[in-house]
TrEMBL record, chains A, B:
The lineage of its organism: Eukaryota, Metazoa, Chordata, Craniata, Vertebrata. The keyword Phosphoprotein does not apply. Belongs to the group II decarboxylase family. GO terms for cellular component: cytoplasm; presynaptic active zone. The gene is gad1b. Its cofactor is pyridoxal 5'-phosphate. GO terms for molecular function: glutamate decarboxylase activity; pyridoxal phosphate binding. CDD domains: DOPA_deC_like (cd06450). Keywords: Decarboxylase, Lyase, Pyridoxal phosphate. This is Glutamate decarboxylase. The modification N6-(pyridoxal phosphate)lysine is found at residue 348. GO terms for biological process: gamma-aminobutyric acid biosynthetic process.
C-alpha cells in the first residue's frame, strides 16, 4: 500500500482495514475516490483499491436487486431523450478526453440504474423477456468475469461442454432421440436463430448456393403465417430470397394459419404446375407461440404437408418453446419432433437473463457444412485435444459470447421441475387475468377463447366510449386509448404493458407473464391501474 | 426471517448479523446452504438469503479477479473433454430433474472458474481479445443486473443514448464530420458487422434485392484480400452471393493486397468488358489489421479505385480500428474517412470485455432502409417520446444485448487519453518482442520488417533443426514444433500463445498483445518458456 499512502487522504493501511467485505466505515470515508481507473489492477498495489471498488459496485447492484422486488419502488423514472441528453443533476452522458474519478464512475453506475427500466419488477409486463432470476444473474456475473469466447474448447473448455450437455437435454425435450444424428447450436437472439434455419434449409436442398450464390437455385419460396415473427421475412430479405418470396399465409381468428389454404398453394405449386411463376417451395415455418396472440400453429398438420412435399420444417419456438418443459402444456407443441430445426429462446419464457437463444437442427453435420470456412488460424487440426469440440466453424459469427453458463446454472439450481413449475405458474396467472376480465365491464377480448400461451389481448373501453355505436369514430377513439394509458403509466412509473394494432384491429393491450415475481395481486394492480388512468379518456 | 428460522441450522436473525458485507463468521458457518434457489427472491423472506448468496458469489469472483493478475497463478488447469465429462471431484456437468442446493451451486461456480482459462492473465496471449479491465467488468455486472434489451428507448433509455453518444465519438475518430448524414450501429461480433456491410452495400446499389431476391441483380462480386478475415467470404456465402463470387486478391509478403492486380481486375471488368462472365463488382473490403500478420491494407489507394468505379468501400477494422485512438499510430488507417462503412471491435484492441463490436455506416438512413420490416407490435409510431430513438428495426436481429455500457463506462473512466496510452503501450511491447527475437539464435521471422500492429509472427527453431538444410524434411519437422510447444504450455498451464500455418508457410507462432496487464517481463517469460519447452524437440 506504500504508493497509495503517500496520497492525501489515502486509505488506512490494510492492517487495520480488512478491505474484503466490507470496507470499514473510516475506510469508506477516506478519500480513496481521488483514485482513478489507472490505480486499479493491474497497477502496482492495485489490489486493494480494486477490491474496494468492486465492493462498492456490488453494493449498488445488490441495492438495485433488492428494490427491483419491492413493489413500493417504481418500475421506471421516465424522462424524454432530450432531458437525459441535457444532463440530470450530475449525470452527464458525454464522453471526454480526460479520465474521471472512480467516485464519479460509481455515481454514473447509480444514475444509469436510476434512469433505467426495472425489467425484473413484478409489475413490468412489457416484453416477452422479463424478470430477474438471482441464479441467472450470478451466472452472468461469473460469465463476465471469465470473459471468454465460445469458439474453441481451448479457451472455453467448461462452457463448451456445458453447452453440449444442455443442448442434449433440450433435444430430449423436443423428442429427438439422443443419437448421433443430432446436432445443435446456440447463439444470440431468436431472429438470428430463425435466419440460421433458412440458411441450413437452403444448404440441405441446394448446397451449391454456398459456392455459386442464389443464381444456382430456382426461385426459392419460404412459407410462414402472417402472424409469425418478422424475422422470417427479414431472413428472406437478407439471405437473398427477397421479401416477396416469403409467402405469408392467412390465419384464422386465433392467428393459426389456415392449413387448407396453405395446402392448396403447395398443391398448386408442386402438383400440376411446378413452374407456377418458376417458384420452388423450400421451407415452412410453424410458429409455436406467436408474438402477439401467443398462438401455436398446428405442427402435426404442417409436418404432414412438409413430409408429403419434401419441404424443410422449422418450428419457431422462441416464445413457446419453454412449454416443452411442462407436462401440462407441452401438447401445444405436439409434432415438434418432426421438425428439421427448432428455435427456442430460454431468455423468454424460461426467465434466463438476456440473451440465450438456441437453434437446434435435427440432421448432424449440416450446420458445419453450411457455415464452415475452415479458418486455419483458429481451428488448427493438430491440437492436442479432440478438436470436434471446437464449434466456431458452425456459426456465421466468428466470436460467440458465452450465453450458456447462466442457463446451465439455473437448470442445476431449479432442476427440470423448477422450470416446469415456473411455466405452469405463469400460465395460471394468465388464466386468472383472462377469467377476471373476459366478462368484466369495459373490456373486450381481441380473440375468442382461452389463450394458448400467457398472452392475453384486450381492449379497455373507457366509460365514455362504452355506449358509442360501432363505426369509424369509435374505432379512431379506441385506437388512441391504449397509447394514452401506456404513456400515463410510464409517466407515473407504476407498471408497463405492451400494446399494438394488428391487421384491421386498432391498438389493444397485450399482456404477457414470464416473470417469476408476478403474483395475482400484480395482475389486479394492472387492471386497477388501467381503469384509474383510462377512466376519463 | 421467520420462515427461515424454522429450518434446522438456519441463520442467526438479522439483528445480530448485518448480512451486507460481510456475512459474519457464525452466519457463514450456519447451514443456510440447505436453502435452494426457491428460497431466493422473489420468495417471501427471500431478501436475506439472496443478499448472502450474491455476496458469496461476489467473494468467488473477486478471488478469481485477484488471482488472475497474480503471476504465480496458472493461466489454465488443462483437462481433456473426456476428463471433464467424467466429472472432476464433485464437479458434475450433467443436469438433472431435481434442484440442487445453493451450496452445490457455489461449488459449481468455483469449479467452473477453476477449470476454465484465465483470459485476463498477463501471460495469456492466445487471442486478439485478452485482458480483464476492472471498469469494464463492473460495467458488465451492471448490464447483467439491468437485464434489458436495446431495441427500444422505452425499455433502455439510458443505454440507447449512451450508444448514440459513444458512436458519435467513434465517428469523429474515423473522421466523418458530425453531421446528420451519419448513422451507425453496434452489434455483437466483427463477423456479423462485416456481414452488415455487405448487406448495406447491396441495398445501396440494388435495393430491389430486398424484395425480389438476388435474381433481381446481376452476378455481384465482392473483393477482399486473401488474408482478410474469413467472415467476408462467409457473408458472401450466407447472403446468396456465393463463395466463388468473393474474389480473394493476392497479397505481398506483408499481407497487403497487390493493388495493381486488383486494379487490373477491376479495369478488366469495368473497362472494356463489363460482361466478363457477367460479373458486376459491388464491394471492396480493405482490412485494417489482418488477423494473423496485423497488416493494414493501403486504404487510400483502394479508395481511389472504389471512387473511380463507384464501388462500396468497407474497412474491416475489427482488430486495427483501435489504433484510431492513438495519435502515433492512426496514420496506419489513413483514408478510413473515405470508407462507406467501418467495422471496429472495441472488444479487441481496446480491452473492452466480450462482446462489443460496431458497424458504422456513412450514409444516413441506409441501415434502416436495408433492414426495416416495421413490426408494429414493437415499434409503435404513437408512443409519447421521440421514436427515432427506437433502433431495433435497423438490425437483422430483433433483440439486441446491451453491449454499450461497459464501453461507455471505460471511456468515462479512462478518457480518450487512457485508450491512447493503452494502445501505445501494447505496440511498444510488441516492438520490444520484435527487437528481442529478430536476430536471436533459434528464431526466424515470418515476414520482413517491423510489424504494423502488435502481431509478431515467428518460428522457433529447436537446436536439433538449426543445422538442417532447407527442404521437405526440415519443413515437416518445423511444422510440428509450434503445436508441440503449445500443447506442453497448456499442460503446464504457464502461458498460451497462438500458432497456425498460412499459405505455404508451416506452423508459426503469432504473438499478440492487447492485455493491459502485460509487461516486458511477461514477454521475456514467453520466450524463456518457448525455449525451455522447445529445446529438446
Amino acid at each position: 500500500m506504500s504508493d497509495i499512502q503517500h496520497r492525501p487522504g489515502a486509505m488506512p493501511s490494510s492492517d487495520n482495514c480488512p478491505l474484503f467485505h466490507p470496507p470499514c466505515a473510516p475506510c469508506k470515508n477516506a478519500e480513496y475516490f481521488f483514485f482513478s481507473s489507472s490505480d486499479l489492477l493491474p497497477a502496482k498495489n492495485g489490489e486493494e483499491p480494486t477490491m474496494q471498488f468492486l465492493l462498492e459496485v456490488m453494493d449498488i447492484l445488490t441495492n438495485y436487486v433488492r428494490k427491483t422486488f419491492d413493489r413500493s419502488t417504481k418500475v421506471l423514472d421516465f424522462h424524454h431523450p432530450h432531458q437525459l441528453l441535457e444532463g440530470m443533476e450530475g449525470f452527464n452522458l458525454e464522453l471526454s478526453d480526460q479520465p474521471e474519478s472512480l467516485e464519479q464512475i460509481l455515481v454514473d453506475c447509480r444514475d444509469t440504474l436510476k434512469y433505467g427500466v426495472r425489467t425484473g419488477h413484478p409489475r413490468f409486463f412489457n416484453q416477452l423477456s422479463s424478470g430477474l432470476d438471482i441464479i441467472g444473474l450470478a451466472g452472468e456475473w461469473l460469465t463476465s468475469t471469465a470473459n471468454t469466447n465460445m469458439f474453441t474448447y481451448e479457451i472455453a473448455p467448461v462452457f463448451v461442454l456445458m453447452e453440449q450437455l444442455t443442448l442434449k437435454k433440450m433435444r430430449e425435450m423436443i423428442g429427438w432421440p439422443n443419437g448421433e444424428e443430432l446436432i445443435s447450436f446456440p447463439l444470440t437472439g431468436g431472429a438470428i436463430s430463425n435466419m440460421y434455419s433458412v440458411m441450413v434449409a437452403r444448404y440441405k436442398y441446394f448446397p451449391e448456393v454456398k459456392t455459386k450464390g442464389m443464381s444456382a437455385a430456382p426461385r426459392l419460396v419460404l412459407f410462414t403465417s402472417e402472424h409469425s415473427h418478422y424475422s422470417i421475412t427479414k431472413a428472406g430479405a437478407a439471405l437473398g430470397f427477397g421479401k416477396e418470396n416469403v409467402i405469408l399465409l392467412s390465419t384464422d381468428e386465433s392467428e393459426r394459419p389456415l392449413i387448407c389454404f396453405m395446402d392448396a398453394v403447395l398443391l398448386m405449386v408442386l402438383g400440376g404446375c411446378v413452374s407456377w411463376q418458376g417458384y420452388h417451395p423450400l421451407f415452412v415455418n410453424a410458429t409455436a407461440g406467436t408474438t402477439v396472440y401467443g398462438a401455436f400453429d398446428p405442427i402435426n398438420e404442417i409436418a404432414d404437408i412438409c413430409e408429403k412435399y419434401n419441404l424443410w420444417l422449422h418450428v419457431d419456438g422462441a416464445w413457446g418453446g419453454g412449454l416443452l418443459m411442462s407436462r401440462q402444456h407441452r401438447h401445444k407443441l405436439n409434432g415438434v419432433e418432426r421438425a428439421n430445426s427448432v428455435t427456442w429462446n430460454p431468455h423468454k419464457m424460461m426467465g434466463v437473463p438476456l440473451q440465450c437463444s438456441a437453434i437446434l437442427v435435427r440432421e448432424k453435420g449440416i450446420l458445419q457444412g453450411c457455415n464452415s470456412m475452415c479458418a486455419g488460424y483458429l481451428f488448427q487440426p493438430d491440437k492436442q485435444y479432440d478438436v470436434t469440440y471446437d464449434t466456431g466453424d458452425k456459426a456465421i459469427q466468428c466470436g460467440r459470447h458465452v450465453d450458456i453458463f447462466k442457463f446451465w446454472l439455473m437448470w442445476k439450481a431449479k432442476g427440470t421441475t423448477g422450470f416446469e413449475e415456473h411455466i405452469d405458474r405463469c400460465l395460471e396467472l394468465s388464466e386468472y387475468l383472462y377469467n377476471k376480465i373476459k366478462d368484466r365491464e369495459g373490456y373486450e377480448m381481441v380473440f375468442e377463447g382461452q389463450p394458448q400461451h400467457t398472452n392475453v389481448c384486450f381492449w379497455y373501453i373507457p366509460p365514455g366510449l362504452r355506449d358509442m355505436p360501432p363505426g369509424d369514430e369509435r374505432r379512431e377513439r379506441l385506437h388512441k386509448v391504449a397509447p394514452k394509458i401506456k404513456a400515463m403509466m410510464m409517466e407515473s412509473g407504476t407498471t408497463m404493458v405492451g400494446y399494438q394494432p394488428q391487421g384491421n384491429k386498432v391498438n389493444f393491450f397485450r399482456m404477457v407473464v414470464s416473470n417469476h415475481a408476478v403474483t395475482r395481486s400484480d395482475i389486479d394492480f394492472l387492471i386497477d391501474e388501467i381503469e384509474r388512468l383510462g377512466n376519463d379518456l
